[in-house]
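Q: Now give one record:
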Amino acid sequence: MIVAKLIGGLGNQLFQYAAARSLSLHKHTGLGLDLSGFGETDANTIARSYQLDSFNIDAPVITEQDRLKKTRFSYPARIRNRILPYYRRRFYNEQFFHFDPLFFKASASATLVGYWQSEKYFKPFAGIIRNDLTFNKAIRIKYKDLVANLQKKNSVSIHIRRGDYVNNPETKRMHGTCGITYYRNAVEEIRSRIGDPELFIFSDDINWVKNNFNLPYKMTVMEQPPDAIPAEDMYLMSLCSHNIIANSSFSWWAAWLNGNENKIVVAPTRWFDEFKADTKDIYPEGWIKI
């Protein structure tokens, strides 16, 4: 069995699930989800919870007993594990941000620990992953009246990520935020291809958007009630014909789950601020970088 150790918010969990699901299909074995990482927080991290129940996935959460079986093994077995290449060990820890070409050589009983933020980890099974990641019936019913409006041929979702990118010092240092200039240029790029866009703005800081974001196009700020869950915004963004994403795995997945074959996706060239990483594999083929 391949096990995905889930950490982080919804976008991160989706990357971790997709990579592990892909590897389990490649190895012709089962898939389990380890939720123990949600209890591992410190002063620089935000407490997160399991959010994949918004999708129609079918993967069991492994028990504490099964998790301990993977962490407690004999001294000779530990020695053998240490001398194996990192990608063959019982715990396969992500080595770097870009795609690891040795990924599919991992053990068929590996626990994946990392973020795995590249479509290359699951592109061979993209059709199955998309089927797994259909939004559940409750979300689709809740927003059924919005579907036609969001699926207009000139609809464009814009995701403005602030929240912890602004308020958490460590996250701010690592990621930074996309500025107004990026969004203006991204809208003009799409306008040059489709004519007058109709913009649908999604953000975790609606007041900031209302006070600072103004473009000369039809624009709707998508305000959600306090009890809305993150997957609902992701669902609505995925319904738009085109997407402008932030440097965020959350809107990355909204764009990837967009089923429009002619979609235009614009993404920021600068994915991180101070954190140094090779980000070339974060962008699927055909996405426009600005």
